[in-house]
Amino acid sequence: MILETQNLRKYFGEVHAVDNVNFKVKEEEIVAIIGPNGAGKTTLVNVITGYLKPDGGKIIFMGKDITNASIYERIRAGIVRSFQLVNIFEGLSAFDNIRVAINSRERKEGKIFSLIDRDTTVTKEALQILDLFGLPKDTLARDLPHGDRKLLDVATAFALKPKLLLLDEPTSGVSTREKNKIMDVIIPAARKEKVSLVVIEHDMDIVFNYSDRIVVMHQGKILFEGKPDEVREHTEVKRVLLVG
């Protein structure tokens, strides 16, 4: 088990956004978290990634208690969330965006590009990541199609060498065809690099087609979890999602 929460709680006044949640992720597993608006999905991810402090419970990552670890300690340990990264630099190429992320990982943020250009190790790794995500080397980030911009965001996450990557709506705002294209790149990349994925997603076609396991949240609790076929046929899940 790469991640486990034990009776995790996060309250906002009377709202129990995360209410004694026991959530697990296996190594190399792809888990989708679904549920109606206000179910607690994003709050759970915010607590796991350190953006919010829990009101109770524990977070165990790779056998270690990280409940009180900082955001950056979690990133260094291997927990990465797409918007925890250096933002995409619109005026830089996809290649240079990846190189900046690699240098951030290696704590070489102050290294100027003239020196980065001489770093063959960084260059080689950046090119491998670009190839993994099928991204053009020299196109400026601002000139990339929307779907490729999303892939670049995830690619910069991979540059941080995560063991667990949490993605919030990775296919939002793109066409159905682009959604499948994005997931058809992300999933093989995760499999190849042996990265566990946790994905918050509202598009049910994406959820059922690309997940190993689905966790359904409702009112701060886990309502049900199982394989896609089990979740699809669960009466209470269908009721909650339709009503929610």
Short précis:
The protein has 244 residues and is α/β, with parallel strands linked by helices.
Protein model, in words:
40% of the residues are buried. The radius of gyration is 18 Å and the shape is globular. 40% of the residues lie in helices and 23% in strands. The two termini are 31 Å apart. Helix 3 (94-105) runs parallel beside helix 6 (146-158). The strands form two sheets. Strands 7-8-9-4-10-11 form a six-stranded mixed β-sheet, with helices on both faces. Strands 1, 2, 3, 5 and 6 form a five-stranded antiparallel β-sheet that branches. The chain has 244 residues and is an alpha/beta fold. It folds into two domains: 1-85 and 164-170 and 195-244, 3-Layer(aba) Sandwich (Rossmann fold), CATH 3.40.50.300; 86-159, no CATH class. The protein contains ten helices and eleven strands.
> How would you classify the helix and strand content by structural class?
alpha/beta
Strands, count: 11
Shape summary: globular
Instruction: Return the string of H and E elements.
Output: EEEEHEEHEHHHHEHEHEEHH
State the assembly state of the protein chains: single chain
Q: How many helix segments? A: 10
CATH class of the largest domain: Alpha Beta
Strand content: 15-25%
Radius of gyration: 18 Å
Q: Helix share of residues?
A: 40-55%
Strand order of the largest sheet: 7-8-9-4-10-11
CATH topology of the largest domain: Rossmann fold
Looking at the overall shape, the CATH architecture of the largest domain is 3-Layer(aba) Sandwich
Residue runs with pLDDT of under 50 for 5 or more positions = none
At the fourth CATH level, what is the homologous superfamily of the largest domain?
Answer: P-loop containing nucleotide triphosphate hydrolases
